[in-house]
Design a protein that fits this description.
Blueprint (H helix, E strand, L loop, with lengths): L1 H13 L1 H5 L3 E9 L10 E6 L2 E6 L2 E6 L5 E6 L6 E6 L1 E2 L1 H8 L3 H10 L3 E2 L3 E5 L3 E5 L12 E2 L3 H5 L9 H7 L6
Parallel strand pairs: 1-9, 6-10
Antiparallel strand pairs: 1-4, 2-3, 2-5, 5-6, 7-8, 10-11
C-alpha cells in the first residue's frame, strides 16, 4: 500500500505523462508525388515551439512532443514543397492526471509536452499543403491528410472552436481539449 501511495504521489508531483512518455515520439514521414509515386529521401524539416529537426522522408523520426501543432516542410529536386501541419492532441497520460486528480501533474505534463502526441504516420504530397489530425488516426495506420483551409480540416481543428490545445490548457489546467 505504501508503494502504491508513493507512486501516486510521484505521478502527482511529476505528471503521469512525464512518467509514461518521453519528450519525443516516433513519427513516420513519407513523401509522394501528386501521381502517387513514392519519393524517398526528401529533405524535411519539422518545427514546433521547441525548435526544428531535419531528417529524410521515408523513415520514422523522433520528434519533440508539444501542446502546439507541428509544421513539416519536405523538398526534393526543385519540386514544389510538400507542406504539412500535424495537430497535437492530448494522450492517455493527460487522462491519467485527471483520473488521479493531479492538476499539478497535468500542468507539468502540458508544459513539457509529454501529455500530447502527433499522428504517428503521415504522407506528404509535393505541391500540396495538408493537415494531419491525430484524432483521425486508427491504430498505427497512415493518417489521411486533409487539404489545408478545407471545411473538413477546420472542423477538426483543436477544440473545434479555434482554441489550440495550448490555449485550452492555459484557460483550464487539467482539461482535456
Amino acid at each position: 500500500m505504501k508503494a502504491l501511495m508513493a507512486v501516486a504521489t510521484a505521478m502527482t508531483l511529476v505528471g503521469c505523462a512525464s512518467v509514461t512518455n518521453d519528450t519525443t515520439h516516433g513519427v513516420r514521414v513519407d513523401t509522394r508525388q501528386k501521381s502517387g509515386a513514392v519519393v524517398a529521401g526528401a529533405d524535411c524539416v519539422a518545427t514546433n515551439d521547441y525548435g526544428s529537426t531535419s531528417f529524410k522522408s521515408g523513415d520514422t523520426q523522433a520528434l519533440r512532443r508539444s501542446a502546439g501543432d507541428m509544421t513539416i516542410v519536405c523538398t526534393k529536386n526543385g519540386a514544389q514543397p510538400a507542406n504539412a501541419r500535424l495537430i497535437s492532441r492530448p494522450n492517455g497520460g493527460m487522462a491519467g492526471n485527471i483520473v488521479l486528480g493531479g492538476v499539478i501533474g497535468a500542468v507539468v505534463d502540458h508544459n513539457r509536452g509529454t501529455a500530447y502526441t502527433y499522428p504517428t504516420w503521415v504522407e506528404l504530397v509535393f505541391g500540396e499543403s495538408l493537415v494531419f489530425d491525430r484524432s483521425l488516426q486508427t491504430g498505427d495506420a497512415v493518417v489521411k491528410g486533409l487539404p489545408a483551409g478545407s471545411a473538413t480540416a477546420k472542423a477538426n481543428a483543436p477544440g473545434r472552436s479555434n482554441v489550440t490545445s495550448h490555449q485550452c490548457m492555459q484557460q483550464l489546467p487539467g482539461a482535456i481539449c
